[in-house]
Design brief:
Elements: H1 2-55, E1 63-65, E2 79-86, E3 91-100, E4 103-112, E5 117-124, H2 138-141, H3 168-187
Antiparallel strand pairs: 1-2, 2-3, 3-4, 4-5
């Protein structure tokens, strides 16, 4: 009889305690997630809308996700990942991604209802600091503002903009993102 009590006390009891602890912790995590998930989602949307508003101020912070076809450049490495239209019809904000020197480069591009670029912002890049990042500087990106057409998907062949000397690969990546955004605008038939 003593041996059965020792078995329960030494082996079964600790296992039951651990199972109960796991159930309690799992319940608490699920409960916490249920409370925080909507808050995190709302904060993420507000942050993204704030970035979009920076690029397209006329939208006044209100955007709708575009759910139609997204543009992909022929090489398959440069793509539009998302597109939002201004709720008031004043333009679109496109997020595009392509390969760059240090890996992927992602940029957001604002385009007004007339097809003019209102702003370009690099949101993610792994290019070499001090060299490749020159193509992400406002002094380089601002040359796109106001343009309604790009003549090529290659910055070296485009007559409307200039590449950053010493940061050609990064300049090409930024340019391909902007080119994809302009093509997305055309694909959609303009701002809707």
């Amino acid at each position: 009889m003593e041996s059965k009590n020792n078995t329960f006390k030494d082996f079964i009891s600790p296992i039951l305690v651990l199972v109960v602890i796991c159930f309690v912790v799992t319940f608490l995590l699920a409960f916490t997630y249920g409370i925080t998930a909507p808050i995190i989602e709302a904060n993420t949307k507000a942050s993204a809308d704030a970035s979009r508003t920076t690029l397209l101020e006329a939208a006044e912070g209100s955007f709708d996700e575009y759910t139609g076809e997204l543009y992909e450049l022929g090489d398959g490495k440069s793509v539009v990942t998302e597109c939002y239209t201004a709720s008031n019809g004043t333009g679109i904000v496109v997020t595009a991604k392509t390969n760059s020197y240090g890996g992927d480069l992602t940029a957001m591009i604002g385009i007004d209802s007339e097809g003019a670029i209102t702003g370009v912002q690099v949101t993610e890049a792994s290019d070499t600091p001090g060299v490749g990042t020159k193509a992400q500087a406002e002094s380089h990106l601002s040359q796109y503002t106001g343009l309604t057409e790009l003549t090529s998907d290659d910055v070296k062949k485009d007559t409307n903009v200039e590449a950053v000397t010493g940061a050609t690969v990064s300049s090409k990546a930024v340019h391909r993102c902007v080119y994809c955004a302009m093509e997305q605008f055309k694909l959609m038939g303009g701002a809707q």
